[in-house]
Amino acid sequence: MSFAFTFTPDRCTGCGACVVACWMENRAEQTRPWREIHVFNPGRVPGLPLFQLSLACHHCEAPACLDNCPADAYTQDLATGAVTIHADRCMGCRYCTWACPHDAPKFNAAAGTIEKCTFCPARIEQGLEPACVARCPVDALGFEAKTDGRPPSSLPPGFPDSALRPSIRFVPRRNPLPGKAPGTARWAHLLEEMLGVPEPKISLQGEWGLLLFTTTMAVSASWFSAALMGGPVVRPLPFLAAGILVMALSILHLGRPERAWRAILHLRTSWLSREILVTGLFLALAGIQMLFLPKARTLAWLAGAMGFLGLLAIDRIYRVALKVKPWNLHSGSALLTGFYLLGFLGGLPWLIYGAGALKLALYLLRKGHFIRQGRYSRPWLSGFRLVLGFLGPLLLLPWNPGL
Predict the structure, then answer these.
(1) What is the pLDDT of residues 292-332, one digit of tens each?
(2) 144, 115, 118: which is closest to 131 by C-alpha?
(3) Predicted model pTM
(4) Which of 118, 123, 303, 309 has CB atoms 3.0–4.6 Å from 286's, for a disulfide?
(5) What is the number of alpha carbons within 13 Å of residue 294 lying toward its C-beta?
(6) Closest by Cα among 199, 349, 9 to 340
(7) Could you report the per-residue pLDDT of 345-354, keeping only the tens digit for each?
(8) Cα(353)–Cα(356) distance, rounded to whole angstroms?
(9) In whole angstroms, how far apart are CA 181 and each of 22, 45, 178, 313?
């Protein structure tokens, strides 16, 4: 029998007893709070209610952390529903923190691994409730056995709706956020937007190695394929050296680099595992073909296909963090960039204009989305990108295609 949390917002006073209880129960493993209190309307906006949510890992029925972890470091107990991270298997890639829309997994910088709510399995085995539930003085937190067919509870503002089926049932508030009351609809919308924007999953400062890896793979895949079409010749040793170097640099961002070998253990559902395998095959097949079998055209085309499959896998990886409109496509797509460069290097104008137009349209749509959200603060940077990435190459193309 699996279990689920329940939460009654009208009872919660935000006292933090659940947070303290969680720490006391798990202080040997916990370095950051696994349960957090989220305050709604902390500024006491007139006309809007003030209430709190106490949230931790929801031990989803279809957990994104488990499906996306490349190291196969997560397991799910079918008897209780508990989703557990095994620190001895974790390589600290932090991809589960990108994939989880509820921000449950926490990175332990000292250990280089992930930690999160465990569901207090030892207490459940003894017939007890998790520590946070047992210590709640006002019964705002509850614990119950799941019942098939239970109608879904109403989700509070800021709580992401997903297909993960989180194991938490919210008791509807007696006075929900007003949606049509005069003078309050605008504030309610603003409140939901503010609480619905999580901390950025990716930063250039923290992930520069991954940016270098992605860019180098796009250039390598397009250049290698263009060379097969009569484009610029690829020199094997610099080509392989660049690929191996950026793969090595991408390993350095791991919390536990010595466990990098685990990255291909979850090919069944993890796009990160697939990306590592496919890009490795691309470099290996390309190296074998260029160094030992230069006349093996079939092997060369197979290597080129692996390169572009690797770019597709890269896009699928970033999809979980860069949720943008429309169709969840991003102008910085590695696959689109690969086709764009292949058009230039392979002398294919239709591919240049096709991929370039799509990238440009996606870029402008994304900026329009930011403008509507009030997040467009650096128009000069957009102008620089347009000139450098689109107008510059297109102006140079008829004058000097090689340049």
Answers:
(1) 999 999 999 999 999 999 999 999 998 887 765 556 788 88
(2) 118
(3) 0.87
(4) 303
(5) 6
(6) 349
(7) 998 989 998 9
(8) 5
(9) 39, 14, 6, 47
